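WARN  no MSA supplied for this record, continuing single-sequence
INFO  ligand: P-hydroxybenzoic acid
INFO  echoing inputs
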Amino acid sequence: MSVIRTQVGIVGAGPAGLLLGHLLHLNGIDSVIVENRSRDYVIDRVRAGVLEQGTVDLLKAMGVGDGLERKGLRHDGLYVSFQGERHHVNLVELTGGKAITVYGQNEIVRDLIDARIATGRPLYFEAEGVSVGGLESAEPTIAFQHDGTAHEVQCDFIAGCDGFHGICRPSIPDGVLTVYERTYPFGWLGILAEAAPSCDELVYTCHARGFALFSMRSPQVTRLYFQVPPEESIDNWSDEAIWNEMLTRMTTHDRWKPNVGRIVQKGVTPMRSFVATPMRHGRLFLAGDAAHIVPPTGAKGLNLAASDVLVLARALKSFYERGRTEWLDGYSDTCLRRVWKAQRFSWWMTSTLHRFPDETPFDHQRRIADLDYLTSSRAAMTSLAEQYVGLPAEVSFESVGLSAP
Ligand code: FAD
Ligand code: PHB
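INFO  complex generated
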């Protein structure tokens, strides 16, 4: 068996694990990243698209923002559409200058893998049988097989960045975690289409047939979603049926609608709100989707993964540089304050914009009134805008050795 010694063992090479590895590297802290999928699989997985202002600033301050600056699409506003009308929300004006940027998660992951490889620090893909042990000891371990050889990583700390279906959270003994959960009676059918975006900002639509979302990935690629039953099979939807439903829900009275093009990727995603607390057990720290999931309506998941690892990097830096443990001890509470506000926002966006199967005519009218108020009150739009561009992180960039934006 090969034994590898490091300071921080990281399970998972998604946004959380890769960002943490790079933040630690910038602070001279060693890490080993262990990922069970292949490099291509991790890069090709189509997921998030919207980055909060703070996430954009963080990527740039970390020196991994070149692709983002070249290819990211900055959006100063968004539209909320209902009863056939699009209503504009000017994010920049309402937040004193903050915006969001559309840049695919797969691009971020690609940039971060390149940055990791350039550091020469270890990153294992296609690790098999990954397990964690000794969580309550001073030297926890990650065990796995790679290319037919058994490996053990001996660490000071383990970061569980292995997403919702990973092994870190289930390795915490029964009875330690409290789980808060809500599943929604719908999912999203999402497509990528070779069609130029017909609008330069996102359009969130509430339609009598259900929610729909217009987004994009590049000046040539449109990303669209609509609400479907949670167990819906993608095989039930021909490309023609998908376009009919998209156009029915999204076309507005002024004849705005998405451009139609060849569908190059399609899939159905379930919707869930989930929080496991505390986000730490012994020397294992959970970050990102391993600890919490939000429904995608608020576009918060990747952004929360980034804010968690910022908090964790500060705590680890303070431990290694000054021997202090109070920020490690405060890790879970600090993260959860931001996580719960994003949970609340994502639940509110989801409940307001989607049609629930048991919705009464009263519920429907109340949702329309909610949207009417939202789009006609500057106070309500400001509340949406400041949450959509991202509430402030409690941790400064300087505390992880980065320059302030
Ligand atoms: P993941 O990205 O899940 O990464 C975990 C990694 O761990 C994976 O690479 C996985 O292969 C690996 N892993 C799993 N098990 C093991 C194991 N046993 N051993 C080793 N490695 C393991 N968020 C936003 O902020 N904005 C958006 O616009 C947005 N849109 C979304 C749209 C959709 C359709 C979906 C599904 C999600 C969206 N999200 C969005 C959420 C976002 O994609 C996630 O929150 C984000 O990927 C979380 O990053 P993570 O690193 O915590 O977890
Ligand atoms: C996306 O572009 O994939 C996207 C945009 C906004 C969301 C969710 C997903 O709320």
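The CA atoms of residues 75 and 289 lie 25 Å apart.
INFO  checksum written, moving to next record
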